[in-house]
Structures are given as C-alpha cells and as structure tokens.
C-alpha cells in the first residue's frame, strides 16, 4: 500500500459545503462528528455521527456538509494486490450500512477504536518523517480494511426473493455505481444472491441486454464524456472507465461509435 494523500478536517459553519472529486486511488473517509451526505457514483449515503466509507478509484464522490460543525479524516492510497481491499459488492453494501450502525454493539467498538487511532496518527503527522508516517498509516488502514471485510461477511443478509423487475433495477444501479472497477459475472450475481446464469436470463428478459452488455454501455458512455470534456489521454480514459486494455477499449469504442476514440474527440471538439 502506498499513501497518496491524507487529511484531518474540522469545518464549522459550512452547511452545504462540498469536498471531493474523482481520482485514481482508493480512499477511506471517516466522519467523526456531525451530519453529512456522501454522494458516490450517483448514490447519496447519509452519515449522522460516526461513519466510515470506502471509495473506489475513478468513482465521482462529493462530501456534502449537513450540520453546522463537521469533523472527519480521509486517506487516499494505492492498494497493492496483497492489501486486504474488500470485494466490490462488499464495499457497496458496507457503504449502505453507514448511518444505521450501533457503534456500541459488538463488534463495532473494535472498529471505532481503530478509526480513532488512525485519526490521532494523522493529527500527529508532523512529528514523524514522511516514510515512517506513511508506513504507520498504511498499517492502520490495512487493519480497517480487514475489519470491514470481516464485519460485512458476518452481517451477510439472507437472500431476499423479489420480483424480476426489482432485481434487474437493483443490478443496474449497482453496475452504474461501480462500472470503473474490475467485475466478474460472479461478483454481480453475489450482489443479487442469484445464480449467474439465471441472472443473465432475467436481465436479458427485462432489458434485452446481458449484464455485461449493459456494463459496456456504461463504460463507453462515460468514456465519450471524458473524451469530450477532460484533458485525459485515451490510455487514461480507458483505465478510468474499467477497460482491461487500450486495444480492447479502442476496438469496442469504434464498434459502438463508428470511429476511433481519438478521432471522435477531434470531431467533437472541432
């Protein structure tokens, strides 16, 4: 794990203020006191008091202050393969739990202690050389990720059988929120608690597309927006939108829009 940036903030009198954006790093955002909304990839998550959010790379996010005073910390980091980053569906569900957690009930006191330890370390950042501080903070963040995965697994809900339209609608919202991330059909099926082949049939019946066809549409639409409005290179846009390689991105983009990404950008920008 490599720490990119971190911060500890105490904001007074900034109701309605916003902080956030898009960056190619994972992020942990901890609300310590106050009320706020996290707008993450088109979904608003409410926090009233203590809350911990996991933000995936290349996903738009804004923290909106809802109380007179707000205290929080954040840490952006590059996660290595060996780091205990929870699965995409686990992160999505974990963020949805925030605002409704009883922090006095087991096992949350252990997580709360780890949250405050990380925050205290950030407040004392200047007392350590950067390399020592970065190593210590990375250790604290790994602990938090391990606890998130373990707690989320223990809280795994029983499958709820709902109508096909509701299942497909929820699947679409899930894909819209996490489309930049590496996804497998099994990951999507785990989110819905349905068999993968059944989910594909259900999704196609409701939309005329497979889940991965819809996912590709989301990625291509996002890529077209980046090409028209951002200074990012085609390679950077390919990665930001979840494509495994620039060659696959270029081939898929040309099949969808009729021209290569660079040519599409040139024509649109005049």
From TrEMBL:
In terms of InterPro entries, this protein maps to: Homeodomain-like_sf (IPR009057), HTH_AraC (IPR018060), HTH_AraC-typ_CS (IPR018062), Tscrpt_reg_AraC-type_HTH (IPR020449)
Q: Identify this protein by name.
A: Helix-turn-helix transcriptional regulator
Q: Which UniProt keywords apply?
A: DNA-binding, Transcription, Transcription regulation
Residue span(s) of domain HTH araC/xylS-type = 169-267
A GO term for molecular function: DNA-binding transcription factor activity
Q: Which domain of life is it from?
A: Bacteria
